[in-house]
């Protein structure tokens, strides 16, 4: 580390800041359904997720290799390009966190990196085939595969436990949900912490500290794991609310099916070196589990906003990254201005978030979500779907209180 320059040190610190935002932005991936169903208390859930994210960071470096030597060509890329890419990724992460939208931190990083690289060295600096095969195709396939798997798993789960009462199975499902949430947290650390490792490794290569194609040093793995664990522990309560309650109403069997499906997809992708979006996998699994339960619906108005954010992530972060790289090309004052704009933008977003704060105390309060219109699809599904088992008696009681009974008082004789 003795050859690290001041600029390289700033880039490393900025990368760890991104890793921190990745942690609190993506806590919902692992723990939103566990918190929403009451399987774990919020603080216990995020502490458990943080510890397992840290452990997961040490399990593999395949995704880090994809980022550090796959998406862009290392030759001719300056250290300032990495800094500009991180600026775009951090600002997009914070903006979507403010809006409570579970967008992809991974795609924000890729978008910033691609935009900054193109601004610096042209389109030839980007490995298009790697972007398509290991970023774009998994981005489309992951939520579909996870959603389909979760829908089938939910239906299978309800069919297996059909003969047993809800009270008899709820404890078992909650225990299974805790285990599957731990698996998602481990998978998140394995996949997402490596992205920061890859970025820092790429910065070290561009700074001449490491040879091209080198593995992340141990200190990079440790620092990236600690940063994402700390961010996870603080909890991104806004996105936890959206993921846990805003997309659909989840029961413990659905939460178990969703998390198990998502964890399987994420771990498989990490093993293959696909830099998968854990957010998209988990969101797809949550929606699939909502559709898998009889009587369950998805709030498509919320889902639509989430889909729009997914589509905008790569180009939006890319544009910000390209703009930041344009400034850094102007020299020292441009680098300083870029850093100042990053700090100022982050501060403005934080101030705006304080107007309507979401904390550990109100994370399951869904007044804001329930006030929005249900949407045409949700209304249509609800109109033709029979109510869940056990609600017939309550519905009959409501009907009795709504329709007045016959007047039992004897009629008085008419007066002449």
TrEMBL record:
Keywords noted in UniProt: Membrane, Phosphate transport, Transmembrane, Transmembrane helix, Transport
Any Gene Ontology CC annotation: membrane
Superkingdom of source: Bacteria
InterPro entries: Phos_transporter (IPR001204)
An annotated GO BP: phosphate ion transmembrane transport
Localization per record: Membrane
Ranges that cross the membrane: 6-24, 45-61, 81-101, 108-126, 132-153, 196-214, 220-240, 307-327, 333-352
GO MF: phosphate transmembrane transporter activity
Name of protein: Phosphate transporter
Taxonomic source organism: Streptomyces aurantiacus
């Amino acid at each position: 580390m003795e050859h690290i320059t001041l600029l390289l040190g700033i880039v490393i610190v900025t990368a760890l800041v991104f890793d921190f935002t990745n942690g609190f932005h993506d806590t919902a991936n692992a723990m939103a359904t566990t918190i929403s169903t009451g399987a774990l208390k919020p603080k216990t859930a995020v502490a458990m997720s943080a510890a397992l994210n840290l452990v997961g960071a040490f399990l593999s470096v395949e995704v880090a290799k994809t980022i550090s030597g796959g998406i862009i060509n290392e030759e001719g890329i300056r250290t300032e390009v990495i800094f500009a890419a991180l600026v775009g990724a951090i600002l997009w992460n914070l903006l979507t966190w403010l809006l409570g939208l579970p967008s992809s931190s991974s795609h924000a990083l890729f978008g910033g990196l691609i935009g900054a690289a193109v601004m610096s060295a042209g389109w030839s600096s980007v490995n298009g085939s790697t972007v398509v095969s290991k970023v774009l195709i998994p981005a489309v396939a992951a939520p579909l595969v996870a959603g389909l798997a979760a829908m089938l798993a939910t239906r299978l789960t309800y069919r297996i436990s059909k003969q047993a009462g809800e009270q008899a199975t709820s404890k078992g499902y909650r225990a299974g949900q805790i285990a599957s949430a731990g698996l998602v947290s481990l998978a998140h650390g394995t996949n997402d912490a490596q992205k920061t490792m890859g970025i820092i490794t790429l910065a070290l290569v561009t700074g001449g500290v490491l040879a091209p194609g080198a593995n992340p040093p141990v200190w990079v793995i440790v620092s990236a794991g600690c940063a994402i664990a700390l961010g996870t522990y603080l909890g991104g309560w806004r996105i936890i609310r959206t993921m846990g309650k805003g997309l659909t109403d989840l029961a413990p069997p659905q939460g178990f099916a969703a998390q198990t499906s998502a964890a399987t997809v994420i771990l498989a992708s990490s093993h293959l070196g696909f830099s998968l979006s854990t957010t998209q996998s988990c969101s797809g699994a949550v929606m699939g589990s909502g559709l898998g339960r009889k009587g369950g619906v998805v709030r498509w108005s919320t889902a639509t906003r989430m889909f729009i954010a997914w589509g905008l992530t790569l180009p939006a972060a890319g544009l910000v990254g390209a703009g930041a790289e344009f400034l850094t090309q102007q020299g020292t004052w441009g680098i300083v201005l870029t850093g100042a704009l990053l700090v100022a933008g982050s501060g403005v977003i934080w101030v705006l978030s304080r107007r309507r704060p979401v904390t550990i105390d109100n994370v399951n309060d869904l007044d804001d979500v329930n006030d929005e219109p249900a949407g045409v699809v949700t209304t249509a599904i609800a109109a033709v779907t029979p109510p869940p088992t056990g609600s017939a008696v309550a519905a009959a009681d409501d009907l009795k209180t709504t329709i007045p009974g016959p007047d039992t008082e004897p009629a008085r004789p008419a007066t002449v």
